[in-house]
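Marked as duplicate of an earlier ticket. Keeping the data here for the record.
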Amino acid sequence: MLDLKKLLFAREARGAKARPAEADSDYTPSGRRGEGLEEEYRALVAAQFERWGIASDCTTIEVRTLGHAPDGLDVMVALVRLVSWERTSALRLLMGLPLLETKVRKSVRSSWLGEFSHFGGLWLHASDKLHATEAHHDLRDVLMQVAPPSGAHAQDGSSLPADYGQSSQPPLAPDTEIPASGSLRASKPGEEEPVA
């Protein structure tokens, strides 16, 4: 009987060595890779938005796995969509995005999520529904107050053109020259102009 006990205990011991050690965490992964992490990240981002006073009905938050880091951990990104215009919430999100992302990064590092994944950032997108609404006019007015135009419009005292803020191209930098040829070239301090 003694030999039978040794045999059973030896078999259990070998089986325990073959199984990976359980992680020292309360996190129990789901059947699909990344599913639990995605929900945890979404909850973390939503909590930061709530702390900042960003209304939950103004945004949607979707978390996706972007890929894998060299260390094999998943890289997670939070895709934030601005779906409705509530002025205070939208401006806090648009203007505070770098600060919000920093807060989320710190929260990830201070939680268990940092041990199982990397945070790839907050990616912001405005819904197509906002393009033909009062939001564009409101945002244009705020942009005028916060960052008035520079360059020719600021020097001659004229107002913004009617289509300001409606272009799909980024605004020109103040030191960008537009030659007659139509190609753009940004001059740098101390750089001489080429002789034609």
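See parent ticket for discussion. The chain has six helices and five strands.
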